[in-house]
Amino acid sequence: MGLALMATMALAGCDTSLRDAYESKYAASVGMMTAQNRALRSIPLPHERVTVAVYGLPDLTGQYKEDDTGQNLSRAVTQAGAAVLIKALQDAGERRWFSVLDRSNLDNILRERQIVTEMRRIYRNESQIDPKVLGPLDHSGILIEGEITGYDTNTMTGGLGARYLGIGGHRRWKLDTVTVSLRAVSATTSEVLASVVVRKPIASYATQGNVFTYIALDELVEAEAGYAMNEPKQIAVEQAVEKAVMALVAEGAMAGLWKFKDHAAGQHYMASYTAQKFDGDVPHRALRPKAPNTRNTAIPATVPHRPVARPATVRRVSERRVAPVRTPSTSAPVRTAPAQRPTAPPDNPDSDEVVG
């Protein structure tokens, strides 16, 4: 009995230690909002929501992650650029700027629609699906396209330190840079309506202090402490994409693609963006950029086709019965008039008598 109790307590202790090992003091959170994301959500409101389609935001850097031993097979930046871009577009003005159509997984959507069509055809014998059951896909006149075009490591490095009588410390830092390109493209003419490029530095630094000194002839003291901070590359890419969306809103407004609800707030927003873009030295041409050739980017929504009923008067006339035309029977004999015989000319050519 005692051995069984001890075994049960030992097993319970193992379960507790395993649970503590898997429980982290850093819990999952949805509230880690950056200053860049707050700025994106506080954009001045638009005149109306703009429907845009997103197909992807691929990584074109070709860079692999670096560590102390060299490069490994992991990519340096995220491969889920489409998800980051869709989230940034939805966050613009708290979902008031863009209605986003996800085309990154279009094959899945089309396959699911085919399943609906086939099931109703097999089990309900429907040759044509009712639009109320499976309506047309929504479409957009503007595509939001872009790429992660660059990732440069160690663009800047530095550090400082000091030591006195075996006591000292030092600090080292470095900067990487990620570059994101974003543009709005017309779906009707394929013209690039607006484009922006954003570069985001990624900071990493380490601070360390140490002691190495003798406190007596044969007594040595050695100690060290430090910490390091590496900015997450995922958050850096998110901030770069969010900044690109903010810049694209300003570029699109200046190009006439969309308008702000409050004209004064919109002018202030575009002026702040232009000043930041040109580092305060704004050229005169930048104040009045040339509009794109594509004037109207809106595409009418698809409406299911319905047969048009004919008017009642037209239907009655077309359905009126017409009496059949009687034709002579081919079996009955046809009577014809006898042919006239030719008459001989009169003997007296001067006579006026006409021979009948």
Give an account of the 3D structure.
With 356 residues, the chain is an alpha/beta fold. The chain has a domain at 33-146 and 232-287: 3-Layer(aba) Sandwich (Rossmann fold), CATH 3.40.50.10610. It contains eight helices and eight strands. The protein has helices at residues 2-22, 35-41, 81-91, 106-124, 233-255, 263-277, 284-287, 312-319; strands at residues 50-54, 64-67, 70-75, 98-102, 142-164, 167-186, 192-216, 219-230. The strands form two sheets. It has a six-stranded mixed beta sheet. Strands 2-3 form a two-stranded antiparallel ribbon. It is extended, with a radius of gyration of 42 Å. Mean pLDDT is 82; it is low at 348-356.
User: Over the alpha carbons, how many angstroms does the gyration radius reach?
Assistant: 42 Å
Poorly predicted runs of 5 or more residues:
348-356
Mean pLDDT: 82
Q: What profile does the largest beta sheet have?
A: 6 strands, mixed
CATH topology of the domain at 33-146 and 232-287: Rossmann fold
Q: Indicate the overall shape.
A: extended
Strand arrangement in the largest pleated sheet: 4-1-5-6-7-8
GO cellular component, one term: outer membrane-bounded periplasmic space
Keywords: Cell membrane, Lipoprotein, Membrane, Palmitate, Signal
Biased composition (Low complexity): 303-315, 332-342
Region (Disordered): 283-356
Give a nutshell description of this structure.
The protein has 356 residues and is of the alpha/beta class. It has helices at 2-22, 35-41, 81-91, 106-124, 233-255, 263-277, 284-287, 312-319; strands spanning 50-54, 64-67, 70-75, 98-102, 142-164, 167-186, 192-216, 219-230.
